[in-house]
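Form P-L/3: holo structure prediction, ligand protoporphyrin IX containing FE.
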Amino acid sequence: MLNLSSLVGFLVLGFIGWVTYKLFIWPFYISPLRKIPGPPPESIIFGNFKSVLTKEEPFLKWIQKYGNIVKVNGIFNRQTIVVADTKIIQDITLNHVYDYIKPPEMLNDFVLILGRGLVLAEGEEHKRQRKMMNPAFAHNNIKEMVPTFIRVASTLKELIEDKINKGESEINLTPYISKATLDVIGLVGFNYEFNSLTSSNELADAYASLFSNATNPVARFFISVLSSYIPIVRNIPIDINRRFKNACVVVDRESKKLMEEKNNEAKNGELKSKDLLSLLININKTLPIEEKLTDEELQYQIMTFLIAGHETTSSTTMWALYLLAKYPHEQDLLREELAKAFPDKSKFNPSFDEINSLEYLNCIVKETLRIHSPVPMISRVNVEDKIIGGYLIPKNTTIMIALSALHKSTEIWGPTANEFDPKRWLNPLYTKNVTNYNFLPFITGTRSCIGNKLALAEFKILLSTLIRNFVFQ
Ligand code: HEM
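OUTPUT (holo model):
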């Protein structure tokens, strides 16, 4: 019979054996992924994770060195595939889109702030939500949002003017741009006045604590990744976890309130407002019961729009301003184009078609999205074994599409791929190579960004207002 100490010894040995197998034997001698080229792990515990966090453009460098399909080791040598091959991307985003789901461990954190809305829904649930939501994002509805973009951009302009008049010449714009895009999504999303540019608001503060005001975004990211291995990490009572949880409580409560208010309003007949939530509620009323969004799903869409439509647009605007400050000649060219199209800057009131007709603005927008994609990488997990690029990829492997690496490929963009050069978008030498599968800031296919037209129009209005009125250095 086993006594207690031999039982403990047996368990300890078993554990050591299991850890040795998982960390050192499986990844390097057995896993089918071992055959895929990639950087050697730099640490037993963290694999290549340190390079991902600290090095500049590590994925681009690995793809340039090892090819368009690369194996990277994560924490505890968990292997991940990084792809930058257009045929593979077409398969993942279009041909077999529902064979690839978002990494389940992503759900743990994201579901708390996004809900199971369009971004996190999978399979049939996604198909149903997307089909009913597409009409709300139609061209004609986005056109009607332009006056709101102009109104918020003009409040932002006045706020900066006010600071300049008070003698400030160096202004950190990040929190203001973030507030402007939050105000926009509040209005066009739900007819909700955050007024975060001019006053304080609990929901706006909750988002600020998650993003623009986050005390330590790298630590938050690290906790998020680590908790996918050790779930208890997210419950450790430290400030960073407390702030995240408090923000989630506010987001949940306020988005529920918004949904209930609109639903009550809708009991009196069709909603007249053209915000996304009103459009969704009107569409929902016309659908057969099995296609309708539930109240909970409606609330999730509010949470989804707030996150998906807020920081992405603000970070793109910030990058554009940064690049234009770095390249003053490009900034002047854009200002000239704007001055020619709208000679009286106090009456800057373009329509959707007018703002989209500006050629140089368009080039700057695309070049910013190319050089600094706000979503540099998207992740999927294959639900069944797949042959990808000639390699067997066992089910449940995380596959990352390196959008930002593709955007800087010298094969597509030539030797100046790393440089900010808006004029390249007027040069057929480059544009002839561009396809939906190699320039994809909003990805492409069935799960592409539903808000892309909205985002582009909003970005153009914000950028034009700022460049027409101020010089950035
Ligand atoms: C410059 C701004 C934006 C960029 C670069 C961007 C980019 C993206 C990308 C790359 C995805 C795919 C993510 C994935 O599948 O893993 C996505 C999805 C999505 N985006 Fe955006 N986005 C932007 C703005 C917006 C705005 C303004 C909204 C809404 C108001 C929005 C709503 C969504 C939604 C709902 C999805 C999920 C679509 C689906 O799975 O069917 N985005 N976005």
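COMMENT: The pocket of protoporphyrin IX containing FE is lined by residues 118-119, 130, 185, 304-305, 308-309, 312-313, 316, 374-375, 378, 441-443, 447, 449-451, 454-455 (CB under 6 Å).
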